[in-house]
Amino acid sequence: MVTISCRFVIVDYALAKALDNLKDHPYIVISYDIACQFCKNAVERFKKHFPQLTDTIDRAVFVVPKMHIQNHVEECLVRYSLNYIDGSGRFDGENPESGWAEANNAGPSTRQMNYGHRHEVLTDLFSDSNRVKIANLRPSLLF
Predict the structure, then answer these.
(1) 108: in domain
(2) What is the pLDDT of residues 30-75, one digit of tens each?
(3) Which domain holds residue 22?
(4) Closest Cα partner for 57 from 71, 42, 73, 70?
(5) Quick one: 51 and 35 in the same domain?
(6) 3-state DSSP percent of the chain in helix, strand and coil, to 5
(7) Going by C-beta distance under 8 Å and a sequence separation of 6 or more, which residues neighbour residue 71?
(8) What is the CA radius of gyration of the chain?
(9) Does the pTM of the predicted model rise above 0.85?
C-alpha cells in the first residue's frame, strides 16, 4: 500500500493554475489563512510538481489575512502581517470570504435543485453581490 501526503496538494494545484498567468508579474502577494505553514517548503514542492513556476513562487510574498492572523502566534504577527508588507496599503486579505455568509444561507434552498438550476441560482446570487459592491463603490471614490 502506498500513502501520499496530500496536505497541500489541492492548494498547490489551485495556486499553480492562478500563478500560471502571473509568471512575468514582478510583485505577487499570496494571502492565505495558514500562509505561515503553507509557505514552508513551497519552493521545493513547486520544484517537484510545477517546475515552470519555481521562480514565480520563489519571489511571492506570503501573508495571513488580518482577521485570521489575530489567532496566530506572535512570530506570525511579525512575519506574515499585511501591516508590514510594502505595497499592501490597507488591504485586509479577507474579501474572498466576505460573500460566504450570504452564500451559506442559500444552501438549504439550493440543496435539492439539479446541477444546472443550482448553478444558475448561485451565479445570480454572486452576480447580484458583485453588482451591489460596484454600486456602493462610487460613494467611496468621491472623496
Answers:
(1) yes
(2) 888 888 889 999 999 999 999 999 999 999 999 888 888 888 888 8
(3) 9-93
(4) 42
(5) yes
(6) 60, 5, 30
(7) none
(8) 19
(9) no
